[in-house]
């Protein structure tokens, strides 16, 4: 590959396929641009189209994706993204729609948003849903802001300043609570891996604003005393918040509203199979019950006299959380996924996900410790401690075998944790191959494990240095 130096005294440099100019003469640069930031020459690769295609195709093949293999990240629900949803999202009438289009000219898109709101309300048993938040964490923050404003309106913001969070919670829960101006109080788990209800009763007070919890919890265990927990929280005048990250386990079986929750967020990019990973894109709609409807972000899509309209009239709305109406491309894919599956199909999704997880758990239990025992739901957290191998080393071994590693060292309540969620997408053959690799890793000599991975494009990195000295290019 050769380079030539493009000079700024050339009239212009063109992209010869599009004919567009991508930089102009040096003297044409704006006066406000500092001289030290102006380059006299720019190296331009002198390569053929064929070489360029080979290079970028090779780079794409170095990436692991949910389309090429099992992506068993516990707590993340990385399921297959069906291509019909991508095709629908790529229809120009959707993909090229300007968000400032007048309502009469975007009735089809508004209808989809309205139908998605209604379907999410039915799935969650909530009274109202806002599609605006752009991710699960932003959905959490939206719920926290709703709680904050509710108590501000009630004149109790200074009193209700604590949010209770289980010790197995997702890290975004305490982060969202802290960003919302609340103090966090950790509630320990009992010997069964579920919320210690006695500890909850001892911690709750007139200062409690809410209890944030997901069900099933991060260990894949269903909180069987959830209705009792809801009564405790409500009797104290607080709200029960549902973290929707584990929704894949309960579709068609139960719902946050049935369990007594007041607020929930949905991870559309998890539960409803829209693109996920790499920091985005995402969508985290929020559902609420009762008087909290008036606090949702605006607008909400309504159907009035046969027309779909944007409603900004919620009298206590916390305002906008994101620009315009949310991440429409992700909302559209989720709508397509729910429409295609229907209520029976969504129920089957959860049944298959739970079946897959329990099959994997049974196979792996003889090699790895499975804390708390019992039937799991969508995911399982196992410990590698009794194998004498670190979870990190097991994960590196899996990379060398061509598998994506599970989530490691989370939840913090499990030592040397490997948290696995195979979702409904995985076949029995795929699960068997994965379990075989994990069992083999447990007997691999420790010194060998410490040298892995060897077959990946990048070998073992210094984890601490990589976290603090990022090199985000190859």
Molecular structure report:
There is one protein chain. The chain has 474 residues and is of the alpha/beta class. It folds into 3 domains: 2-50, no CATH class; 83-341, 3-Layer(aba) Sandwich (Aspartate Aminotransferase, domain 2), CATH 3.40.640; 342-468, Aspartate Aminotransferase, domain 1 (Alpha-Beta Complex). It contains 15 helices and 16 strands. It has helices at 49-61, 83-89, 92-95, 107-124, 136-153, 172-179, 197-203, 226-235, 256-259, 268-271, 328-364, 391-400, 428-441, 446-449, 463-468, and strands at residues 2-7, 12-14, 21-24, 41-46, 128-130, 162-166, 183-187, 208-213, 239-242, 263-265, 286-288, 300-304, 307-311, 380-383, 407-408, 417-420. The strands form 5 sheets. Strands 5-11-10-9-8-6-7 form a 7-stranded mixed beta sheet, with helices on both faces. Helix 2 runs antiparallel to helix 11 and helix 4 (107-124) packs parallel to helix 11 (328-364). Mean pLDDT is 91; it is low at 1-24.
List keywords for this structure.
474 residues; alpha/beta; Aspartate Aminotransferase, domain 1; 3 domains; seven-stranded mixed beta sheet; 15 helices; 16 strands; 35% helix; disordered N terminus
Rounded mean pLDDT is 91
Shape: globular
Discrete helix count = 15
CATH class of the largest domain: Alpha Beta
**Secondary-structure content class:** alpha/beta
Task: Describe what is shown at a glance.
This protein has 474 residues and is of the alpha/beta class.
Fold blueprint:
Layout: E1 2-7, E2 12-14, E3 21-24, E4 41-46, H1 49-61, H2 83-89, H3 92-95, H4 107-124, E5 128-130, H5 136-153, E6 162-166, H6 172-179, E7 183-187, H7 197-203, E8 208-213, H8 226-235, E9 239-242, H9 256-259, E10 263-265, H10 268-271, E11 286-288, E12 300-304, E13 307-311, H11 328-364, E14 380-383, H12 391-400, E15 407-408, E16 417-420, H13 428-441, H14 446-449, H15 463-468
Parallel strand pairs: 6-7, 6-8, 8-9, 9-10
Antiparallel strand pairs: 1-4, 2-3, 5-11, 10-11, 12-13, 14-16, 15-16
Helix pairs in contact: 2-11, 4-11, 5-6, 11-13
């Amino acid at each position: 590959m050769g380079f030539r130096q493009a000079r700024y005294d050339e009239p212009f440099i063109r992209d010869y396929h599009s004919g567009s100019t991508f930089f102009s003469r040096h003297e044409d640069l704006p006066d406000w641009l500092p001289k030290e930031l102006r380059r006299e020459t720019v190296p331009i690769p002198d390569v053929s189209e064929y070489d360029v295609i080979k290079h970028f195709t090779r780079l794409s093949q170095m990436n692991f994706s949910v389309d090429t293999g099992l992506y068993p990240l516990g707590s993340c629900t990385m399921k297959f993204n069906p291509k019909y949803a991508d095709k629908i999202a790529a229809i120009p009438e959707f993909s090229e729609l300007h968000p400032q289009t007048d309502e009469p000219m975007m009735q089809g898109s508004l209808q989809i948003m309205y139908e998605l709101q209604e379907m999410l309300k039915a799935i969650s048993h909530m009274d109202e849903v806002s599609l605006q938040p752009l991710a699960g964490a932003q959905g959490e923050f939206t719920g926290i802001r709703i709680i904050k404003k509710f108590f501000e309106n009630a004149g109790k913001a200074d009193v209700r300043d604590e949010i209770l969070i289980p010790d197995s919670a997702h890290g975004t829960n305490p982060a969202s609570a802290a960003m919302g101006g609340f103090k966090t109080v950790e509630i320990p788990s009992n010997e069964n891996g579920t919320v210690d209800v006695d500890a909850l009763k001892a911690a709750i007070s007139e200062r409690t604003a809410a209890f944030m919890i997901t069900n099933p919890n991060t260990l894949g265990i269903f909180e069987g005393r959830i209705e009792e927990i809801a009564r405790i929280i409500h009797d104290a005048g607080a709200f029960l918040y549902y973290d929707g990250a584990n929704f894949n386990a309960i579709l068609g079986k139960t719902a946050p509203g049935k369990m007594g929750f007041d607020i929930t967020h949905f991870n559309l990019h998890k539960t409803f199979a829209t693109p996920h990973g790499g920091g985005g894109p995402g969508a985290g709609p929020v559902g609420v019950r009762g008087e909290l409807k008036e606090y949702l972000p605006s607008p909400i899509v309504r159907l009035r006299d046969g027309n779909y309209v944007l409603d900004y009239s919620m009298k206590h709305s916390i305002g906008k959380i994101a620009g315009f109406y949310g991440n429409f491309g992700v909302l559209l894919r989720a709508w397509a996924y729910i429409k295609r599956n229907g209520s029976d199909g969504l129920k089957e999704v959860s049944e298959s996900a739970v079946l897959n997880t329990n099959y994997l758990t049974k196979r792996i239990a003889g090699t790895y410790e499975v804390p708390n025992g019992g039937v799991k739901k969508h995911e399982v957290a196992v410990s590698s401690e009794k194998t004498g191998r670190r979870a990190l080393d097991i994960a590196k071994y899996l990379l060398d075998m061509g598998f994506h590693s599970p989530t490691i060292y989370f939840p913090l309540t499990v030592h040397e944790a490997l948290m696995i969620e195979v979702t409904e997408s995985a076949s029995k053959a795929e699960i068997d191959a994965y379990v075989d690799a994990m069992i083999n890793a447990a007997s691999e000599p420790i010194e060998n494990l410490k040298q892995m991975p060897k077959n990946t494009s990048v070998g073992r990195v210094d984890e601490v240095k990589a976290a603090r000295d990022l090199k985000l290019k190859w």
